[in-house]
């Protein structure tokens, strides 16, 4: 006669439902409890000890110093709790204790964090050789499996080449400058005499620019629909992938379904074809003739979703913090205004701002760099080691570990940035040499949208400082930095019109 366990296995194996729907695991648990009330706690303790031992074995492979924290969670909670603060408490404290290259255990993975400039640079520069991207599963689920941040090797190189040559090429972006300027002028035309929430304005502006460049659509109903769902989707990316109706991730997944449907409907009915989507699909079709139509469409859609994500919230957050820092520092406002008024003086009446003007305004560019240094849009990025990495003959990063090059620590390192919490755009000129800056990442994955983002912010600043004398902050805003830099009140301001006009 078959024992109870064998019968269960037979039932499960044959897809049967012998015990009113009970699965094998539940039956095993039930039996364990029936045998002895003490068995379950014993199994739990033994499993915990085995797991700790396993983890200790894995962690000991790296000769770095560090700690592995609690069972299962490791040091994830401590790491996450610092994310809302502008300061890297967790990383700084660990670096003080263990050195600037240390080991820990995060998101169920043995991890090395690099907080020293030299190692941070090495990690981003060895992309595809010693390291590859390793973004959380929630990114792939919400942005789509073919999005640029989750693909590697040939597929990634092909997508990147395409983006650089067809989407973010300076010649193409040059043509968009008038459109960006028109949008800024229109937005600012209603700012006088009311409280303006800069975050709302910046998010709308940055989204409209990205949507025009990526989808070729202008502000309107379709644009608003995608924008609202993209906000929900993006929020979900930074939480554990637990798909329940009330979790941020679950809401993000529903928003993704809506974005995919909206995009699919739009792509089928759009009046002008031969756009980014079509060109990309054509590129892949020629390169990988074995890909099915469904795969091609998926890759096309994920390219669009990935760009909509990468392009707008990052830029919007930087706009908001630029307005905050410039408004709080009258001497910076005066200097930036001088630079922008000089540009106006050299122009004929009615002549427009150009891409070249923006690139040539060095103080403005330093203001943007300083904002990105302080406001932490990108605190780190996610990598994994492709092979054992040795430093000084010691195995420090074993193959397959998660690696976080910590940009924020470099940006706040007083060796490079004296008085690091001070907003000081002059530091770039004074330093003489190039300061280490990872606001747009580094190496082969360096942000291809940096010039577009800088131009958008420059145009916003141009009209802000030449139309308004200053802006007053309404109430006290509290900054938070997770998942993106935000201000608790969305930066409400009241502008003071400019009394003096140039020329
Ligand atoms: C201030 C605004 C922005 C910031 C701070 C920013 C930051 C970054 C960073 C740090 C990375 C590197 C990620 C990594 O190494 O894992 C990156 C990649 C990327 N960014 Fe940006 N970005 C901004 C604006 C934009 C814009 C406007 C676009 C385009 C519309 C864009 C498109 C991309 C793309 C496609 C990638 C992936 C590149 C690759 O994997 O090869 N970004 N960005």
UniProtKB/TrEMBL annotation:
The record's annotation in Gene3D superfamilies points to: Cytochrome P450 (1.10.630.10)
Subcellular localization, per the record?
Membrane
Q: Does the keyword Transmembrane helix apply?
A: yes
Q: How does it sit in the membrane?
A: Single-pass membrane protein
Q: Which PROSITE patterns does this entry report, sorted A to Z?
A: CYTOCHROME_P450 (PS00086)
- InterPro entries named in the record: Cyt_P450, Cyt_P450_CS, Cyt_P450_E_grp-I, Cyt_P450_sf
Q: Which UniProt keywords apply?
A: Heme, Iron, Lipid biosynthesis, Lipid metabolism, Membrane, Metal-binding, Monooxygenase, Oxidoreductase, Steroid biosynthesis, Transmembrane, Transmembrane helix
Q: What is its main location?
A: membrane
**Family per similarity comment:** Belongs to the cytochrome P450 family.
Protein name, entry field: Cytochrome P450
Q: What is the lineage of its organism?
A: Eukaryota, Viridiplantae, Streptophyta, Embryophyta, Bryophyta
């Amino acid at each position: 006669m078959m024992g109870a366990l064998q019968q269960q296995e037979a039932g499960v194996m044959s897809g049967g439902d012998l015990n009113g729907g009970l699965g094998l695991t539940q039956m095993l648990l039930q039996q364990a409890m029936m045998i002895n009330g003490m068995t379950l706690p014993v199994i739990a303790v033994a499993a915990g000890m085995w797991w700790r031992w396993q983890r200790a074995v894995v962690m000991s492979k790296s000769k770095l110093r560090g700690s592995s924290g609690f069972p299962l969670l490791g040091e994830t909670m401590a790491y996450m709790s610092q994310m809302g603060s502008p300061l890297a408490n967790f990383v700084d404290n660990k670096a003080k204790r263990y050195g600037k290259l240390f080991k820990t255990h995060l998101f169920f993975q043995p991890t090395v964090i690099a907080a020293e400039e030299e190692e941070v640079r090495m990690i981003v520069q060895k992309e595809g050789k010693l390291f590859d991207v390793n973004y959380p599963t929630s990114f792939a689920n919400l942005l789509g499996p073919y999005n640029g941040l989750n693909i590697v090797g040939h597929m990634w190189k092909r997508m990147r080449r395409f983006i650089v040559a067809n989407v973010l090429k300076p010649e193409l972006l040059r043509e968009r400058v008038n459109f960006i300027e028109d949008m800024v002028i229109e937005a600012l035309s209603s700012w006088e005499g009311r409280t303006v929430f800069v975050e709302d304005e910046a998010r709308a502006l940055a989204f409209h620019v990205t949507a025009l460049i990526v989808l070729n659509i202008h502000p309107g109903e379709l644009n608003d629909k995608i924008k609202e769902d993209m906000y929900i989707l993006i929020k979900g990316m930074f939480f554990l992938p637990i798909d329940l109706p009330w979790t941020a991730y679950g809401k993000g997944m529903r928003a993704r379904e809506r974005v995919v449907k909206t995009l699919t409907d739009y792509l089928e009915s759009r009046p002008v074809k031969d756009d980014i989507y079509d060109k990309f699909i054509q590129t892949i079709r020629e390169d990988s003739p074995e890909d099915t139509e469904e795969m091609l469409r998926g890759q096309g859609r994920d390219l669009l979703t990935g760009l909509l994500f990468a392009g707008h919230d990052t830029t919007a957050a930087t706009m908001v913090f630029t307005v905050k820092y410039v408004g709080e520092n009258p001497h910076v406002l005066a200097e930036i205004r001088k630079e922008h008024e000089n540009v106006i003086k050299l122009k004929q009446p009615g002549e427009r701002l150009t891409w070249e003007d923006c690139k040539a305004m060095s103080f403005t560019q330093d203001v943007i760099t300083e904002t990105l240094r302080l406001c932490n849009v990108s605190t780190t990025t996610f990598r994994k080691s492709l092979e054992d990495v040795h430093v000084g003959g010691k195995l420090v990063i074993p193959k397959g570990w998660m690696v976080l090059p910590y940009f924020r620590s470099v940006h706040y390192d007083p060796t490079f940035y004296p008085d690091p919490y001070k907003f000081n755009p002059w530091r770039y000129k004074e330093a003489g040499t190039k300061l280490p800056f990872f606001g747009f990442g580094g190496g082969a994955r360096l942000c291809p949208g940096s010039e577009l983002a800088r131009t958008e912010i420059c145009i916003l600043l141009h009209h802000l400082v030449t139309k308004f004398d200053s802006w007053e902050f309404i109430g006290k805003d509290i900054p938070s930095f997770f998942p993106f830099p935000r201000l608790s009140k969305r930066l409400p301001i009241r502008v003071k019109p400019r009394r003096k006009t140039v020329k």
